[in-house]
Amino acid sequence: MSVQLDQFGRKFPARAHGNLTPSVAADAVVFRKRQDGQYDVLLIIRGGNPYKDHYAFPGGFVDYNEDPLQGCLRELQEECGLIGKNPSLITVAGDPRRDPRGHVVSIVYRIDVDEDAVPIANDDAKHAQFYPLAEVLTWLDRLAFDHADILRQAIRSLENDARI
Q1: 16 DSSP 8-state letter
Q2: Which residues form the Nudix hydrolase domain (predicted)?
Q3: pTM of the model
Q4: Which alpha helices (H) appear in 14-131, and where do they start and end?
Q5: What is the pLDDT of residues 81-116, one digit of tens each?
Q6: Which of 15, 55, 93, 164 has the fewest CB atoms found within 10 Å of its own CB?
Q7: CATH number attached to the domain at 23-163
Q8: Chain-wide mean pLDDT for the chain?
Q9: 61: which residues sit within 8 A by CB, 6+ positions away?
């Protein structure tokens, strides 16, 4: 029996209620404003594939019976040891090609943490750190998945908040 592949060459997932459904993930974008008025952004270095050793936002798959926001906060705590607060929705990223493992829809939130909070990598994060946003913008090709596009959207949301 041959394995059926989708148009992107990936195995089809198991059917749920007769339907093929994507997986759901949640990602946290955490900015921190510095005293000079510039921003830092929290990134992890992925410890596993896909995109091993690439930079990414903390996040992961939403558990069954878990609200995506709670999943986002859980992943932030598991991967970085940080307690998130004041969530706001940035985007829902759903391009079927965004994850080589299969169709994964990610719900992305901007999350605040205490200004003196120090990330400590854990779970599947090899490293976790705040990086100067201006520096990250010079190496967007080192971000996993579609996180460069998500970062651009997060920056727009930050700019929109600054105008209020």
Answers
A1: B
A2: 21-153
A3: 0.92
A4: 68-80
A5: 999 999 999 999 999 999 999 999 999 999 999 999
A6: 164
A7: 3.90.79.10
A8: 95
A9: 23, 24, 25, 71, 104
